[in-house]
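Support request, please re-run this one:
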Amino acid sequence: MAGQRMIPPLTGREAEREELRRTLDQPAGPHRLIRGGFGSGKTALLTDLFEKATDMGQVVLWASCVPADRLRGGSLMRQLGASRWTSGSSSSEQVAEAAGPPGPLVVFIDDLQWADADSLKALADLLRASDSDPKLLNMIASLGPGDSGDEYALGRVLRFFHHRTQLSPLSGRVMEHHARTLVAEAPEEVLRSCLSATGGNHYLFRTVLGALIGGSCAEGEQAPEQIMAGLVPEVSAAVRPLLRFFGSGCEKVATVLAVLETALPAEVIAHVSSMDMETAEDLVHALARAGVVERVGDCVRMASRLLAAALAYDTPPSRRAEYHARAARFLVTWGAPAEQLARHVFHSPPGLEFAVPALRAAADVAMARCVPEEALTYLRRALREEVDDGARGELLAQLGRAEMDCDVPAAVKELRTSLSLAGHPAAQASAARQLASALFAVDHYEDAVAVLQRTIERLRPRDPAFALRLELDYLLVSMGEPEPARQTRARLRQLSMDHATTAAVERPLAALLSFRAAALGEMSAQAVEWALHGLRRGLLPTDDESLVYSCAALALSAAGRPDLTLEHAAAAVAQSQAQASVLAFAQSVSARANALCRLGRFSAAQADAEAALAALGGIGIGRSESHCVFAVATLAEALIRQGRVSEAEALLVDSDLMGPSRTHMLYDYPLVVRAWLHDAQGKQTEALADLLHCGERLDARGMPAPGFYPWRSEAALLYLRRGEGERALALTDKELQLARTWGVPETIAVALRARGLVTGGRSGLDHLEEACRILAGTPARFRYAQAQADRGLLALECGYTDEGRAALRDAASLAFECGAESVGDQALAGLRSLGDRPRTPTFRGRTALTLAQRQVAELAAQGMTNAEIAQRLYVGVRTVEMHLTKAYTKLGVQGRHALYEALN
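Re-run finished. Output below.
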């Protein structure tokens, strides 16, 4: 090719070239042997030395052997000029006569392994004769792969070559250096991929460089695969003839390895090549000496990807498939790993009796390695096998589950067919749940409900237990829409743990009952007990995939235990990462984000919600679809609480959540969050409309409890600002009544806060004080900060300055710890109205320390005494004591022994 002609023939072999050239400068250099495999550059080196010796005026002879020479007696010696000496009677005088007056005779022989036996014997005699006067003869020969015509005679010649140069594969560093010099414009990734395909083979390296120089790779116009594909025919034509000379059967063994593409033990190679073990091992040995293959432990593989592609190029497809099938049959008897076996089954013709289980097992392994695309490839190949409807249904179900982690819309089709083929009740129930989940993910709620309902009707006569298990999911999904919720309300009310006739129903039933209790606002302690019972095997039980467990986690938060929700969600995140399930990860990290929000840890909640959205986006679920809504709303809440209102608005707009809301219960949360956004923007009318609309939706579904969304309290405060006190009071009365029935401290405190603000005066302050006392014992840090800020401001309004200051200082510290800057700023503004000038935004913890207090505390934590600190800072000991006392108070520690931990 034109590009290769532009490349110096010894590119990459400069070090060997200089070393060999130095031998020519010696008056009588030692006999030198250059050893190398196929394409190593030995002939180019020998030619370079021949030209150098000629330029130096030395007497030179050249001979080049080919495989056919092994059968032509004396052919090598005839090339060297047999008239100069007689085989078997060479003497130093004959050599001197051949060399002539100028100096030693330099003999170059290429591919010595193919020399005929007679010539080898003559060479041995000649070399022995020259030993008496080494200055007379300098022989330089190359030795490559291939069987000699007479190994004994060749050995007699080789023992005279005391200096040998072994041509190893080119290193990546050497290749990259030359490639960067010659093809500077090639993109880094293209260059490295192409060079690695050569395996360090000198011939292939020059061939690739020629393609890069002559091709269009300057701006990535050609991918590495395209460049390699263009070289395959040329390399194949060059390599195959050589392989035939390396030994009978070498071409077949190399082709088998090239087609199978993986490192294989000799037993497999022998079986696929239809030869005995000894023959196969001998051929592998010959190929390894030639540099065509390389050993990897007990296995063998092609030394170069380009060489492998070249040998596979002109192998007929039917023969390639046959090789893979023979390899698969042999490996299955060995109990080979699933993916190793499946790689060959994949390329085999349909009909292998073990194909389907092997491909399914490999798909499971691929999913565990976080490569769902590979799993899909195996499963789609398995569908080409002839199997009964039941097995095909199982295959499609597995395919659908894998697609749920890549492309949810595509999973619907496979899961729908899987359900139609499922025969056993367990398979029907599982397929229906999976299909409903996929339909739910793409907002086809009515279709999801219909799928569950039809399957329940089919199952009930055959297996009531499976029908009941599926009914639990049906009831949960029905709660999401007003009309289905109305139709199933009575049935939902009838359920109790007495209906759990089998272990398979017990946990999901407990989970559903916990969510029902939270929605109705009844029996909060029992709801927690049910939720924990339902979550005994976590949010993602491997034996029972269902959204009902996520709802149990929501029930825990509504029952005032977001700390328990966080614990289960964190475990589910770790589990989903170990199982490599993107959808499960997104669901569990969304649950963790929401729990963090309820705990007032807004920065961490934001990070989790963003991770959930990124994961969902990666599998084709857009932000406006239902599976993203919960994470979007959580993220928007976290942003609003941190005072990042414009970012929250942009998020809701981008997620199509600022217009008319869909009717499903998942969209209640975004409505409440949107109300908070409007309130923060000063749009009270819009905020109130969103909250009242949310309340109407909840009432229509029979979910009056304030545990999920305290919409009445929020709406009451907006009515209060509009001067509609009676409406505000009516809402707070109702919310407080429902909250006390629910019996959750946080929910009661939220209602008391609203009641206190609506009532005002001393009576209102009493309500706020009660709310703060309750919240102090809960994990709801943000709600506590909110109530303390309101209490402090109302106390100032009523003239209780000391009480107000203390509450506001506490509120500011709590708010900034949560990251709730709007509440913190509100509390600081109240303090400044008293004439206070806080030097830090908080009044406890590390951030509450002034610079001087922090300096003193850090030195004390290092073990310095007060006197040493005073000397270091050029202040008095009394000043150090004062700063330390204030630091202890702000950090909440009793002495210097606890300072290091508190500061770090």
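The chain is about 65% helix and 5% strand. The two ends are 67 Å apart (CA to CA).
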